[in-house]
From TrEMBL:
Residues of the full protein shown: 29 to 257 of 274
Lineage: Bacteria, Pseudomonadati, Pseudomonadota, Alphaproteobacteria, Rhodobacterales
KW Nucleotide-binding (keyword) present: yes
Domain ABC transporter intervals: 4-229
Family named by the database record: Belongs to the ABC transporter superfamily.
Protein name: Glutamine ABC transporter ATP-binding protein
Organism name: Paracoccus contaminans
Keywords on record: ATP-binding, Nucleotide-binding, Transport
Gene: glnQ
UniProt GO molecular function: ABC-type amino acid transporter activity; ATP binding; ATP hydrolysis activity
Length: 229
């Protein structure tokens, strides 16, 4: 059961060839850690999956939807794929709760009452339910990133993409965010994570994929990956 399929994907930024013949199949429930040097195309790869970046050629299919430039296809895929960034990207003028209910109400037409119930469920799950009425600036970085994860979960996505979610955090806050991601993984979520946290990779990854210069150059189970020279 393949949930995300990338086939012969090519991506250019101007003349710069950012993704070179990327082929990737992600099974439902699979956890993938994407690693490789800075500039190797990791962020570009996951941004292409929800069309934050258009591709030049190739094919991306998410849960049966072919990702074309068609706005309906883009909306469908963005509803199904949650994304968490290095910078938390919360709306500063909105409470934690309102950050979490906005998209479900606007994009999915969920009633306020239902959106709030869902938001409180996921805020509890990331262990931040008691901060729902606060504003992002009143929270630590680790708490803000957990809100960002809860906000993505409120759309009830079939997969979650993480782009260096702990890289902007003070060291003492990295663990609380990784713990949240581990618990999400253990709950069965399909995940693609760009991260340098190799302990996390060892713990949850079904596959570790290594990129260099826009290409997938190695992929393996974590045990084999970390054994290879
Ligand atoms: P520019 O910065 O030159 O305007 P963009 O990065 O905005 O180019 O790309 C516009 C579109 O054209 C994108 O879909 C991109 O993938 C594609 N594209 C850009 N340059 C090339 C190229 N040299 N070869 C193929 N496709 C390209
Ligand atoms: P990584 O996530 O592995 O660090 P990225 O996917 O962010 O790599 O970037 C891959 C390459 O594409 C880098 O050389 C980067 O400078 C370039 N790049 C990324 N985004 C853009 C953009 N919007 N316009 C032009 N070049 C870009």
């Amino acid at each position: 059961d393949i949930l995300i399929r990338m086939k012969h994907v090519e991506k250019y930024y101007g003349a710069y060839h950012a993704l070179r013949d990327v082929n990737l199949q992600v099974r439902r429930g699979e956890k993938i850690v994407l690693c490789g040097p800075s500039g190797s195309g990791k962020s570009t790869l996951i941004r292409c999956i929800n069309h934050l970046e258009p591709i030049h050629s190739g094919r991306i299919v998410v849960d049966g939807t072919v990702l074309t430039d068609n706005p309906a296809a883009i909306d469908t895929v963005r509803r199904e794929v949650g994304m968490v960034f290095q910078q938390f990207n919360l709306f500063p003028h909105m409470t934690v709760l309102d950050n979490c209910t906005l998209a479900p109400m606007r994009v999915r037409g969920v009633s306020r009452a239902d959106a709030e119930a869902t938001a409180r469920k996921y805020l509890d799950r990331v262990r931040i339910g008691n901060q729902a009425e606060k504003y992002p600036a009143q929270l630590s970085g680790g708490q803000q990133q957990r809100v960002a994860i809860a906000r993505a979960l409120c759309m009830e996505p079939v997969a979650m993409l993480f782009d260096e979610p702990t890289s902007a955090l003070d060291p003492e806050m990295v663990k609380e965010v990784l713990d949240t991601m581990v618990s999400l993984a253990q709950g069965g979520m399909t995940m693609i994570c760009v991260t340098h946290e190799m302990g996390f990779a060892r713990q949850v990854a079904d596959r570790v994929i290594f990129m260099a210069e826009g290409q997938i150059i190695e992929e393996n189970e974590p045990e084999a990956f970390f054994r290879s020279p």
